[in-house]
Specification:
- By secondary structure, the protein is of the alpha+beta class.
- Helices cover 31% and strands 34% of the residues.
- The chain folds into 2 domains: 121 residues, 3-Layer(aba) Sandwich (Rossmann fold), CATH 3.40.50; 170 residues, Tumour Suppressor Smad4 (Sandwich), CATH 2.60.200.
- It is globular.
- The two termini are 23 Å apart.
- The chain binds adenosine-5'-triphosphate (ATP).
- The site of adenosine-5'-triphosphate (ATP) has 21 residues, from helix 3.
- Keywords: ATP-binding, Kinase, Lipid biosynthesis, Lipid metabolism, Nucleotide-binding, Phospholipid biosynthesis, Phospholipid metabolism, Transferase.
- GO terms for molecular function: kinase activity.
């Protein structure tokens, strides 16, 4: 197998670089043949991954060294090529791909498992999410897409100049808490029409809707506790009209999946989903900004090939 690493030097506020520097000697000591690419800007990881997928004909592994944004780029570039398997060395702030696909949680273990699977040629098949929005006509997601309050907070935090500053002190997550509390009193929930496999559902003043391929998002929140990345289904979690104070309770219970018992939370399963908001609301795909407005999502069962998965 050809082995490539896609290193995002901006992930985890640059700590990804030191993580990679710890791993590199292990690779060299074992005489492993590999090629490492360093991204120089957002979007380049997708371009490089696509080029690798197009140019290689043999079984190929592309491992993201970063967080979910880096995995999102690699999967969007090369996730659909049948000869490419996607891996990840967790080196980001949010590592939901690693959680959802049962990869090792520490970088050294992840590398060891990746190399062992490369030697054995062991790759597992999972479902691949696809989506289309106004900003991204042909997108792919590994974890989840969604729209509403959560995407709004992510957008504000990512655009804030304070994120980088706080990240320097390892306090980047505080920016999300800050916007969560501030926007809780400002955000206006929006009416959503949701269609799942031809069935229509309408929500007045919904806070958010998330379409999940596996349980995790937002750095370990179990937004869709019962979905599996190989069950051929998407789970749609809708947070309907709810008092503002209760949203805070929801953000606490979501860490163990308890929110699905709230009467305002609805869960649907299906293969094709359309979300049509009455007013433009932000959309995220794997936590990355994906425009706003209407979004379509569907699943391609077994299409995503992943390497380094814990099987026991
Ligand atoms: N060289 C680069 N410079 C700046 N941004 C980059 C670069 N390469 C990739 N990116 C972008 O960096 C962002 C963050 O990457 P990633 O999610 O992997 O790390 P993270 O530490 O989990 O980040 P965050 O907490 O900001 O989501 C992604 O949007 C990705 O597209």
């Amino acid at each position: 197998m050809n082995l490539y690493f896609m290193i995002n030097p901006a992930a985890k506020n640059g700590r990804s670089v030191s993580i990679w520097k710890q791993l590199q000697p292990l690779l060299d000591r074992e005489g492993i043949a590999y090629q490492a690419y360093w991204t120089s800007r957002k979007g380049e990881g997708k371009e490089i991954a696509r080029r690798i997928g197009e140019e290689s004909v043999e079984p190929t592994v592309i491992a993201a060294v970063g967080g979910d944004g880096t995995v999102h780029e690699v999967v969007n570039g090369a996730g659909s090529f049948p000869h490419v398997a996607i891996g990840c060395i967790p080196a980001g702030t949010g590592n939901d791909f690693v959680r959802g696909f049962r990869l090792a949680r520490t970088s050294k273990q992840a590398l060891q498992r990746l190399l062992s699977d490369v030697r054995l040629g062991r790759v597992l098949s999972f479902d691949l999410g696809r989506f289309a929005s106004s900003a991204v006509p042909d997108g792919v997601f590994a974890n989840s897409i969604g729209c509403g309050f959560d995407a709004h907070i992510a957008r504000m935090a990512n655009r804030s100049k304070w994120k980088g500053r706080l990240n320097r002190f390892g306090l980047g997550s505080f920016i999300y808490v800050f916007y969560l509390v501030r926007e809780l009193f400002r955000y206006q929930p929006v009416d959503l029409d949701i269609c799942v496999d031809g069935q229509n559902y309408s929500f007045l003043k919904a806070w958010l809707a998330t379409v999940s391929n596996h349980p995790y998002y937002g750095g370990g929140m179990r937004i869709a506790p019962s979905v599996r990345a190989d069950d051929g289904l998407l789970h749609v979690t809708v947070v309907g009209p709810m008092p503002r104070w209760k949203i805070l309770a929801l953000f606490l219970t979501v860490f163990w999946g308890g929110h699905v018992r709230m009467k305002e939370v609805c869960v649907f399963t299906g293969r094709n989903v359309r979300i049509r908001p009455a007013a433009p609301v932000p959309i995220h795909a794997d936590g990355e900004d994906a425009g706003e407005g209407e979004v379509f999502a569907w699943i391609e069962p077994g299409r995503l090939r992943v390497i380094g998965v814990k099987t026991r």
